[in-house]
Amino acid sequence: MSNVRSDKPFTLAGRTYQSRLLVGTGKYRDLEETRLAIEASGAEIVTVAVRRTNIGQNPGEPNLLDVLPPDRYTILPNTAGCYDAVEAVRTCRLARELLDGHNLVKLEVLADQKTLFPNVIETLKAAEVLVKDGFDVMVYTSDDPIIARQLAEMGCIAVMPLAGLIGTGLGICNPYNLQIILEEAKVPVLVDAGVGTASDATIAMELGCEAVLMNSAIAHAQQPIMMAEAMKHAIVAGRLAYLAGRMPKKLYASASSPLDGLIK
Fold first, then answer.
1. Which residues contact 171 (CB under 8 A, 6 or more apart)?
2. Is residue 5 left, alpha or beta, with left meaning phi > 0 and alpha meaning psi from -120 to 50?
3. 10-12/15-17 β-pairing
4. Max alpha carbon distance in the chain (Å)?
5. Could you say which of 106, 132, 250, 264 is catalytic?
6. What's the CA gap between 245 and 14, in Å, rounded?
7. Of 65, 94, 63, 64, which Cα lies nearest the Cα of 79?
8. How many CB atoms lie within 10 A of CB 71?
């Protein structure tokens, strides 16, 4: 069949990962719950808000890297809490210094504290500077297909459109824009923000996303460690369903066997 989908590895910045679930490290009760939830998720990439989390910039305070060591996880510094390009670029450079030349970063430049919607103008400015500075930029953006295309053309290694506003758990609010982004994608597309439960993650993968990043959906669950495991299975199920290809939707069922020639 010409429309059979073949699987391909999930690769970022030249490194291949088995898990297509990326998880945040904030909002847990303590570092021990963080460790246990991330272990249960099976994630290999963990994102860290450099402006809010100690990864060595505050000596003497608990260090996240003590429970999530960089030799086991790929640390993905992010610019959460930044509201302009200058702040975001400065934060990425600090992260590179703290992580011994680590170039993989997640860029997010927010528009306001209420919605945490991306400021796409400042995001484009920051992305341009960071790409020229040698960073491997994964970028949080709106679900505008034109902006996603521009960020990819600029040299970002992955675009990460929101499914819903950060922390809302509303799920995928506009699957049609995501489909357009996916159709045009020249780089990996990851859903970032809005996932609330396992079915949301599965739907994102069924649409054809390479991976999903989440934090609140796990950390704010009544049982975060159990939800982390649920998300691990949801991502796998969604990817397999995407590769398998769903049956066509019909208004009503058709007979599975021909009726011609049967005794009347």
1. 163, 164, 194, 195, 196, 197, 199, 200, 203
2. beta
3. antiparallel
4. 87
5. 106
6. 28
7. 94
8. 5
Per DSSP, helices labelled H in the chain are: 31-41, 85-98, 120-132, 145-154, 175-184, 198-207, 216-219, 224-244
pTM: 0.91
199-252 confidence digits (pLDDT tens)? 999 999 999 999 999 999 999 999 999 999 999 999 999 999 999 999 998 888
- Helix axes of 120-132 and 85-98: crossing angle, nearest 10 degrees: 40
175's CB contacts (< 8 A; 6+ apart) are 203, 207
What are the backbone angles phi and psi of residue 67, rounded to the nearest 5°?
-105, -20
Measured from the Cβ of residue 52, the count of other Cβ atoms closer than 10 Å reads 11
- Say if residue 32 is exposed, middle or buried (CB neighbours under 10 Å; 0-12, 13-18, 19+): exposed
106 tagged catalytic: yes
- Give the C-alpha separation, 45 to 35, whole Å: 13
